[in-house]
Amino acid sequence: MTIAVEIVLLILLLVTAAGAILVKDLMSAILLLGTYSFFLSLVWAWLGAVDVAFVEAVVGAGLATVLFLVTLFGTAPKDSRLRRPPPPIAALFALPLLGILLLYAANDLPEFGDPNSPASSHISPIYLENSFQDSHTPNVVTSVLMDYRSLDTMVETVVIFTAGIACALLLRRKAS
Amino acid sequence: MKIFFLCILLIIAVLIGAYLYRVIRGPTIFDRVLGLNGISTKAIILLALIGIVFERMDMFIDISTGYALLNLVGALAVAKYLEQKGLP
Amino acid sequence: MEILSIIFIVVGLFFLIVAAIGVLRLPDIFSRSHAVSLTDSIGAFFMLIGLALHEGFSMNVFKILAVLALLYLQNPVIAHATVRAALRAGLKPWQREAS
Amino acid sequence: MLSASFDWVHLGLGLILSFTVAWINSGHSPFVPNFRLWGKIILYIPWLFFRILQSSLHVTKLILHPALPIDPKLIHVKTKLANPAAVVLLGNSITLTPGTITAEVEPDALIVHALDDISAEDVTSGRIESKIAEVYRNGE
């Protein structure tokens, strides 16, 4: 029963991604990407990663859509390469091969939620025991994101900030 | 009881497919916006249901509040854009 | 209490299914917006109230009611903005040809 | 609310911040709560919900009918409501009711898209409008 829900969500995700690639109009592609973020966030929530789902909803569905739209305000709304060249034949063979290789490698990963896997037997207990003494934050995920991996988070914020500055520049050029 | 909620979850997830058809095949851009709006409402309900199934309602209802707020911002931005630019 | 919540959820599910059928069947953007408004105003109401009844009296019920109030405040705004944009872009409402 | 922590520090900070943001965004108008008006609006909500239930049953019947007997049309509705907030409430109520949707707001009229005659009659008869006028008459 739970497997069925996962399968349905993943099929919706795949269909949305394919639609976002195949659609001709840039505006529709933006809307489809927003839908994709909604589904991805649902998948994260279903897997139990609530904070990741929240970030995905905020950044993917809210912020990225608005930033894309603001960019479309200042640039041409049409995709200039409506007739795409067909992909080379080597890519048609190489990409499925790579996919099969990755699936084969994924076989060796530990099971989802396995208590004996290295991640949950070595790393997680240390974070769970020490995070409150180290950072005095009640939420463990927040302390991991903001304290233990603060450099990573800072650079992510820089990316979003740069996108915002670029959108502001585009809007200002249009006004003058 | 949990099985019942899982069934509801599954049915709603399949119903989203109808809206997704409208988003992908919609003749005009406004159909896509409407479909996105319907999908986000469904997603809010789905999140509340997932919270019931996992018995951690307090976490999941927070995300659905965030969804509802973000949906408003995104949809208003799209509608403003379409009003100013006209039909693409 | 459980029975009542199941009844509410099933009624909400019925309206959601009807709205999905309507989104697929209706001919143009303006009439489809009615189907989406059906989902928002009544399907979500019954579903969320059913879930709140199942949850019992706690902090979460207030959060569910807050989400519901948010939905009721913003969905008319979104629907109105979309339809107004469609009207200003020059779309004509669909009409029955024969009559 | 989201972190479910009810310390005085968090509550006070939230109150101060939200009032500050609202005060900045509303053009520095002083905050005057109108409690009688809000009471009337809260009394108005159950009536609106009853209308929503009625009309959504009607729309359900229309959608499930095999011949799809819809007759969509645009109608102009003149309003006598002077208060902008009252017009907003009227437009919101019309949109929230399935079967009718507000498409355009002009200074003294609304353009409403209705799904068929019975839904349209709901708006043209002015029942919602008279109810809202009643809400706002004494609240001024």
Percent helix of chain D, as a range, is: 55-70%
**SS elements, strand count of chain C:** 0
Give the overall shape of chain D.
elongated
Largest sheet of chain D: 3 strands, antiparallel
Integer count of domains of chain C:
1
**What is the N-to-C succession of helices and strands of chain C?**
HHH
- The helix content of chain C is over 70%
Q: Output the helix-strand order of chain D.
A: HHEHEEHH
Short descriptors:
heterotetramer, A: 176 residues, 7 helices, B: 88 residues, mainly alpha, 90% helix, flat
Provide a descriptive summary of the structure in words.
- The complex is a heterotetramer of chains A (176), B (88), C (99) and D (140).
- By secondary structure, chain A is mainly α.
- In chain A, helix 1 runs antiparallel to helix 2.
- Chain B has one domain.
- In chain B, helix 1 packs antiparallel against helix 2 and helix 2 runs antiparallel to helix 3.
- The termini of chain B are far apart.
- Chain C has 99 residues and is an all-alpha fold.
- Chain C has one domain.
- Chain D has 140 residues and is of the alpha+beta class.
- Chain D folds into two domains: 32 residues; 107 residues.
- Chain D is built from five helices and three strands.
- A three-stranded antiparallel sheet of chain D has the order 1-3-2, covered by helices on one side.
- The mean pLDDT of chain D is 74.
- The chains are: A mainly alpha (176), B mainly alpha (88), C mainly alpha (99), D alpha+beta (140).
- The interface between B and C is large, with 43 and 47 residues.
Secondary-structure map with pairings?
The complex is a heterotetramer of chains A (176), B (88), C (99) and D (140).
Chain B: H1 2-25, H2 29-54, H3 57-85
Helix pairs in contact in B: 1-2, 2-3
Chain C: H1 2-25, H2 29-55, H3 59-88
Helix pairs in contact in C: 1-2, 2-3
Chain D: H1 8-25, H2 35-64, E1 73-78, H3 84-96, E2 100-105, E3 109-114, H4 117-124, H5 127-139
Antiparallel strand pairs in D: 1-3, 2-3
Brief sketch in words of this structure:
Helices cover 79% and strands 0% of the residues of chain A. Chain A is mainly α.
